[in-house]
Amino acid sequence: MDGLPTSYTQRQIFFNPTPVILVTGVLLAMLGIAMLIPALIDHAAGNQNWSIFAISALVTGGAGGAMFLATRGSAKALTTRQAFVMTVMVWIMLSAFGALPFYWSGYVPTYTDAFFESISGLTTTGATVMSGLDEMPPGILLWRGILQWLGGLGIIVMAVSVLPMLQIGGMQLFKVEAFETPEKILPRATQISGFITLIFLNLTGLCMLAYLMAGMSFLDAIVHAMTTVATGGFSNHDESIGYFDSAAVDMIAMVFMIIGSLPFLLYVQALQGQSKPLFKDSQVRTFLLLLAGLILFAWTVEEAVGVHNGHEALRVAAVNVTSILTGTGYASAAYDGWGPVAVGFFFFIMFIGGCAGSTSCGIKIFRFQVLFQNLRQHTARILYPNGIFTQRFNDRPISEDVTLAVMSFFFLYLLTFAVSASALAAAGVDTLTALSGAGSAISNVGPGLGAVIGPAGNYQPLGDLPKWILSITMLVGRLELFTVLVMLSPRFWRA
After folding, report:
1. Is 285 in contact with 394 (CB distance < 8 Å)?
2. How many other CB atoms sit within 10 Å of the CB of residue 446?
3. Are 462 and 453 in contact (CB under 8 A)?
4. Do the Cβ atoms of 78 and 93 come closer than 8 Å?
5. Distance CA 161, CA 26 (A)
6. Helices (H), 45-172
7. Which residues contact 117 (CB under 8 A, 6 or more apart)?
8. In angstroms, rounded to a whole number, what is the distance separating the alpha carbons of residues 475 and 465?
C-alpha cells in the first residue's frame, strides 16, 4: 500500500455505510409496522396465522430499529456511490424480511419460494409460486397486496429522486430541479414523496370504491386496488382477474392500470394547478396511441382465431394487452392459446412498458422515443450531410449523454435478458419457459408463456435454482440494470 498514491489508498479503503444502514433500518421498521395490519385482520377473522405476522413484525421491526439506533446522528450527506448501494440494499433487505410471513406460515414449502414471492411483490412483478389462493386466509392475501403497494410507491420515489441523480439509462431527462447534487437527495425525496404518497393513496381509494361498486368483496377490492394502481398484478384468486368474469371489473382495472403507468410527477404538477403537461407530454401521448394500436391488433388476432367475437373479443384484448404492456400481469384469458402470432405478440409487448416515473416496468416509452430520434437524426444526416439536426424530447433538445445512456441501456437490457434465459435453459427449463420467464422477470410483468408459467399457470413447478435466477433478474430489471450491475465492477468500489 505504501507504493500507491495517497488519494488511491483513501478511495480504495473508504466506504462509509452509515447512511445506507440508516435508511435501510428506517424502511425495515416501517415494513415491520405494515406487518401488523394483516396480523390484525387475521386476528379479527379468528385465524391463528395472526401470530406469524406478529412475530415477523417483531423480528423485522427489531432489526430495523437496531440498524437505525446504531447509526442515528452519525449519517453524513449521501454520496453517489452510497446511493447506488442504498437502492440495491433496500430492495434486497425488504424482500428478505418480507418473505418471513410466507415461510413461517407454511403456505410455501421453502424460503426460496417465500423470497421469490416477496421480491416479486416488492418489484411489482406479480409472478407467483402460490396456488389455492381462493382458500387462503385474508392476512396472507392482504400481505401480498401490501408488498406490491409499498413496492409501487417506492419505485416512483426512486424514479423521480435516485435514478435521475445517478443518470441511469437516460433518466437524467427527468431530473427534478432540486436534485442537482447528491447531497439534496434525502431532504428533497422526503418532500416529494409526500405529494406522491397522497396521490397514490387517493388513487388506491378511488380504485377500491370502483371495485366495490362493481361487486367485489371488501378484501378483494382493497387488495386488487393496491395491486392495480401499483401495476403489480397479484390477485386473491388462482384465475386472476378472470375469476370475476365481469366487464365492469375489467374496465376499472384497465383504467387504473393506465393511470398507474403515467408519470406521477405530472400528477403532482396537476395538483399544483398545472394540468396541461399531463395532456401535452409526448411520452403520455405515445403510450396511449401505442396501447390503442396494440389492442386493435390483439382484437384482430382474436377474431381471426375465433376464440372470442365482437365486443367480448375487444374487452378481452383490451384488458390483457393493457395488463401486459403496463407490466401488471393480470390475466382474464389464456392468451398464449390464441396461436403462434398471439404468442409472439404478447412476448414482444412485455418488453415495452409504460412511462418513466410511473409504477410501470419494462424498457419504458421514452427510451423508444429517444432511440427513434437518434435513428431519425442519423438518417437525415445521410440524406443531407451538411444539415443540422437536433434530437428533441418534449420540445427540448436531447443531450449526447442521454442518447448514449439510452443506447447503453438497450444493449445491456438485451444482454441481461439473454444471460438470464441462457441460465434458465442451463438449469433445465424448456426453451419457451426460459425465454418468456426471463423476459417477464426483467420486464417485471409476471406471467410468462406456455403450460408452466403462462397466464393459466404459476412458477411453483420450477426448481430452486431457476427461482433464484428469476429473483435476481426481477431485481436487476426493477432497478434499471445499471444500479445493480455497476456494483459488480471493482472500479465502483475504488471510485
Report:
1. no
2. 32
3. yes
4. no
5. 18
6. 50-71, 80-98, 100-105, 111-122, 138-166
7. 99, 102, 108, 128, 129, 130, 144
8. 16
Any idea of the CA torsion for 359, 290, 282, 261, to the nearest 10 degrees?
-10
Measure Cα distances from 32 to 36, 234, 446 in Å.
Answer: 7, 21, 26
Under-50 pLDDT residues of the chain: 1-13, 177-187
Q: Which of 148, 95, 132, 142 is nearest to 330 (CA)?
A: 148
What is the DSSP secondary-structure string of 94-123?
HHHHHTHHHHHHTSSSSHHHHHHHHHHHHT
Q: What pLDDT is attached to residue 453?
A: 94
pLDDT tens digits along 466-487: 999 999 999 999 998 888 888 8
- Nearest residue to 57 via CA among 131, 126, 146, 134: 146
What pLDDT score does 186 carry?
44
C-alpha cell belonging to residue 440: 417477464
Q: For position 185, what pLDDT does the model report? A: 40
Q: How far apart are CA 252 and CA 248, in angstroms?
A: 6
Grid coordinates representing 237 are 384468486
pLDDT for 10 equals 45
**pLDDT tens, residue by residue, 363-386:** 999 999 999 988 888 888 787 887
Question: How confident is the model at residue 12, as a pLDDT?
Answer: 45
Three cell numbers at 259?
393511470
Q: Rounded to whole angstroms, how far apart are CA atoms 196 and 184?
A: 18
Residue 403 is placed in which grid cell?
Answer: 442518447
The pair phi, psi for residue 351, each rounded to 5°, is: -85, -20
Residue 397 bridge partners (DSSP): 392
Torsion angle of C-alpha atoms 351, 354, 357, 358, degrees rounded to 10: -110
- Residue 195 CB: number of other CB atoms within 10 A? 17
CA quadruple 192, 195, 196, 197: dihedral sign: positive
Give the list of residues 6+ apart from residue 124 with CB closer than 8 angstroms, or none: 148, 151, 152, 155, 230, 231, 232, 233, 327, 359, 361, 444, 478
Q: Are the C-beta atoms of 17 and 85 separated by less than 8 Å?
A: yes
Instruction: Round to whole Å and give the CA distance between 263 and 281.
Output: 9
Helix (H) or strand (E) holding 490: helix 490-494
DSSP state of 263: -
Q: Are strands 392-393 and 396-397 parallel, antiparallel or unpaired?
A: antiparallel
Four-point Cα dihedral 253, 255, 261, 263, nearest 10 = -140
Residue holding cell 408459467? Answer: 453
pTM of the model: 0.91
Q: Cα-flanking dihedrals φ and ψ of residue 44, to 5°?
A: -65, -30
According to DSSP, the residues that pair with 392 across neighbouring strands are 397
Query: Phi, psi at residue 318, to the nearest 5°?
Result: -65, -50
Element (H, E) at 325: helix 310-326
Give the 3-state secondary structure of residue 397.
strand
Q: What is the pLDDT of residue 273?
A: 80
